[in-house]
Design goal:
The protein is α/β, with parallel strands linked by helices. It has three domains: 15-84, Orthogonal Bundle (Arc Repressor Mutant, subunit A), CATH 1.10.10; 92-204 and 379-398, 2-Layer Sandwich (Nucleotidyltransferase, domain 5); 217-372, ATPase, nucleotide binding domain (Nucleotidyltransferase, domain 5), CATH 3.30.420.40. 40% of the residues lie in helices and 19% in strands. The protein has 14 helices and 15 strands. Strands 5-4-3-6-10 form a five-stranded mixed sheet, with helices on both faces. Helix 1 crosses helix 2 (35-42), helix 1 crosses helix 3 (46-58) and helix 8 (276-285) crosses helix 9.
Length: 405
């Protein structure tokens, strides 16, 4: 695995870094695109755009496409530039979503397109052994999928309280982790490559801002409903973290009309009502599935089990009622809901939308409530985005930290 070349970051007022980020974003949005059009989009001079493109080409992030030149016969032909993506042996980012009871590995290009994906079950693994097993499996995955392309590094996304600045999992109740320096563990095990971690709800929100719908760049709320239930808020392209990176804990958000008891001592909390764990337990109690596994419930509904379908619709309406509260508090341009059954069947997303619009005092447009742009690939794409988002914000400073394997 080749390392990306490095251009030292310049000192001063940071304009070079800011301009490089603006040019890279314009190429992401419009590429292939001529330098003159980039100048118009970014408000930069043609000379400044040429300098930034030269740096980005040298870093391997952007490539020229002389074969796409269209000459008008007047003036110098404009050579379009585009991101250096996988088909052209461009750089790639690895990602891992740490789930319960399995994780998902991914490899993606600079446009957030998933090039390779693998599921890694680990339900019988002790908490203290999990990171070592993930490292071993990731080594195999990278050896089989990178195929000589420059590896920029790896992003990791997981539930619970994650401090990305310190690379630490502060608390993950389902895995039994406390104050774990997870980024360092992964980096050491993978030969010192650049590793960044974040909470999976914030990671998906960043993925929406970077690669998804334009409305996400204005404002969005992302609600993640799995074994862990949490959320993220993005305003003007920045995902809020809060002091200690603790923002997004909505597991105890009250769900209107829910009376399900919660371990916290109250009733009607979102996590106790709508999490995968809650759905699995309810499904076993109702005789729908033999073991408490929400994915088995989804499979049963897809096979025509009406009891399973009814339970998933109940869950969808509970999620929708929680979405209504978030809409009324924040009133974002977009609410993104990551919930397994609605990713597979749009009918469940319609249930979420219906319940939300019925209860919300500010939103009468169900189209503002959507699933993630990457669909069922949302989690591995979000994990890779944990690495790519800093690169698009500071390409000259970040690129070049990857190491050859």
């Amino acid at each position: 695995m080749a390392a990306a070349p490095h251009i030292p970051r310049t000192t001063g007022d940071g304009r070079r870094e800011t301009n490089a980020a603006a040019v890279l974003r314009a190429v992401l949005d419009r590429g292939p695109v001529a330098r003159r059009a980039i100048a118009d989009l970014c408000g930069l001079s043609p000379a400044a755009v040429s300098r930034q493109c030269a740096d980005l080409v040298r870093l391997g992030l952007v490539r020229e496409l002389p074969e796409q030149v269209v000459s008008s016969g007047v003036g110098r032909p404009q050579i379009p530039v585009d991101l250096h993506t996988g088909a052209a042996r461009g750089p790639v980012a690895a990602g891992v979503h740490i789930g319960v009871p399995a994780s998902t590995f991914g490899l993606m290009d600079l446009r957030g397109r998933l090039l390779a994906r693998r599921r890694f079950p680990h339900d019988a693994t002790e908490a203290g052994e999990l990171s070592g097993r993930i490292v071993e499996a990731m080594r195999v995955f990278l050896a089989e999928s990178v195929d000589g392309r420059p590896l920029l590094g790896m992003g990791a996304a997981l539930g619970g309280w994650v401090d990305p600045g310190r690379g630490t999992v502060v608390r993950h109740d389902a895995l039994g982790w406390r104050r774990r320096h997870f980024a360092a563990e992964l980096a050491d095990g993978l030969g010192g490559i650049d590793v960044r971690i974040d909470n999976h709800a914030r990671a998906i929100a960043q993925s929406e801002i970077l690669f998804g719908r334009p409305a996400a760049r204005r404002s969005l709320v992302h609600l993640f409903v799995g074994n862990v239930v949490d959320a993220a808020l993005g305003i003007a392209g920045v995902v809020h973290q809060g002091p200690g990176s603790a923002a997004g804990d909505v597991a105890h958000l009250p769900v209107p009309d829910s009376t399900v008891p919660c371990p916290c001592g109250r009733s009607g909390c979102l996590g106790a009502t709508a999490s995968n764990t809650a759905v699995g337990v309810t499904a076993v109690r109702r005789g729908i599935v033999p073991e408490p596994d929400a994915f088995l419930v989804v499979d049963a509904a897809a096979a025509g089990d009406r009891r399973a379908d009814r339970l998933l619709r109940e869950r969808a309406r509970a999620v929708g009622r929680a979405v209504a509260l978030l809409l009324d508090v924040v009133n974002p341009d977009l609410v993104v809901v990551t919930e397994h059954s609605s990713l597979l069947d749009p009918d469940y997303l319609e249930e979420i939308r219906g319940a939300a619009v019925d209860l919300s005092h500010v939103c009468q447009d169900p189209g503002r409530i959507v699933g993630p742009h990457a669909g069922t690939a949302a989690l591995p794409v979000a994990a890779g985005t944990v690495l790519l988002n800093p690169l698009f914000r500071r390409p000259l400073a970040v690129t070049g930290k990857g190491t050859a394997g």
